Automatic annotation (TrEMBL):
This is Nucleotidyltransferase domain-containing protein. It holds the Pfam family NTP_transf_2. It comes from the Bacteria. Residues 11-55 form the Polymerase nucleotidyl transferase domain. Coiled coil: none annotated. InterPro entries: NT_sf, Polymerase_NTP_transf_dom. One of its GO terms (molecular function) is nucleotidyltransferase activity.
Amino acid sequence: MSGKTGVLRQTVLRFLEEWPYSINYATAGGSLGRGDADAFSDIDITIYCEDNLLEETHVNKVYEDEIIQLTCLHTRDLPSEHDIYQSPWHARFLTEILILKDTEERFSHIKQVALDHLTSANGLLTMTQEVTAIVNQRVVAARQALKRGMGYSAAMSALGAWAEAAFLYLYVTWQSCATQHVLPCIRTELNAHYTSLIENPPFQRSYDSVSIVKKYRAFLRKYKGDAHSLAPLHDELCERKAQRLQEQQDPVNVTWHMYGEVIWLYFETSKGTSLDSFVGELPLELKHDLATIGLTPFREKQVETLEQLTEQLIKKVHIIVNRTS
């Protein structure tokens, strides 16, 4: 456990003591949950309460000079053993949480079930099947988008397929769920794959990506409403992510993270509009800026390349998982 992890843990415990409602369970995720928090870390916590008057809430707060990303849920939304066995892929984050409050040690039991199942042969096989299905859906979506002349949507689907496969490869090789570890894992374990990957956007250097995302968020805040994701505090969170990766001398990772932020904000504000239509409504200058961090339409060759790289990762995972059977 890093020294910063201990500091943030004490901070969040004080925050929870001041929470105005009775808390049944509380967990921390991200770098605090993993125990590798650093100077760039925030506090990402989920609390579960029995109060029926409380709706699902997402709030960003500054507390004792630390940024807290808070999700408040009802106890009925607590993960169950059934959830873990039904979809271990979506339950994998349970393996990287720090439990802060645990009525009757129920969450500790759930976490242990997740740890046991997700490292078992059956759990790994089920995860692989889940991700393969997701990947196949996105590959089909990319091809269909191409046929309709929707290059931006094709790019998003093709890159989404690769990312899902890459997260699975990361999990089965490095036992990590951290986004920041995806590209280092691929670069370390599959260097030839990485070399092919970085010939495509958004896996390239962009020296102004953070300020571009900030400009993009400001535009959406002005014209698309006041969604939680548009809060200015998210700009600081982006800056922290970028600073961490810049210290690690990983500019390609910075650009990929910022591209991910752009796509997340699209989903948060588009209200079902296609990405191509969404981009078409952006000012030309902003559209040009976003292109420098990877928001560009794909052609057939680029989609095929990403599809091949995605297939490589899935095959690698199958080999690893079969060894554990």
